[in-house]
């Protein structure tokens, strides 16, 4: 999971999806924390999925 989030963070930043990259950075940081709270990670993943949905809508127009 960490690798996928890291790659998505870099790729989204490269193509200019700054908010998506920021959310991935938050998730990456939470995953790396040894005292991670999985409920906060789950909330961040929900934010990630919502942002992807927004981007899909914007790119379909």
UniProtKB/TrEMBL annotation:
What single Pfam family name could you report for this chain, choosing any that match? Hpt
**Tagged with keyword Phosphoprotein:** yes
Enumerate the Gene Ontology biological process terms.
Answer: phosphorelay signal transduction system
GO-annotated molecular function? protein kinase activity
Q: Positions modified as Phosphohistidine?
A: 6
Provide this UniProt record's keywords sorted from A to Z.
Phosphoprotein
Q: Which InterPro entries match?
A: HPT_dom_sf (IPR036641), Sig_transdc_His_kin_Hpt_dom (IPR008207)
Report the residue ranges that make up the HPt domain in this protein: 1-61
Can the keyword Disulfide bond be found in this entry's annotation?
no
What's the name of the protein?
HPt domain-containing protein
Species of origin reads Melioribacter roseus (strain DSM 23840 / JCM 17771 / VKM B-2668 / P3M-2)
């Amino acid at each position: 999971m960490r690798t996928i989030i890291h790659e998505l963070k870099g790729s989204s930043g490269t193509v200019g999806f700054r908010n998506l990259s920021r959310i991935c950075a938050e998730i990456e940081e939470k995953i790396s924390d040894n005292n991670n709270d999985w409920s906060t990670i789950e909330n961040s993943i929900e934010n990630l999925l919502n942002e992807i949905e927004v981007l899909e809508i914007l790119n379909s127009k």
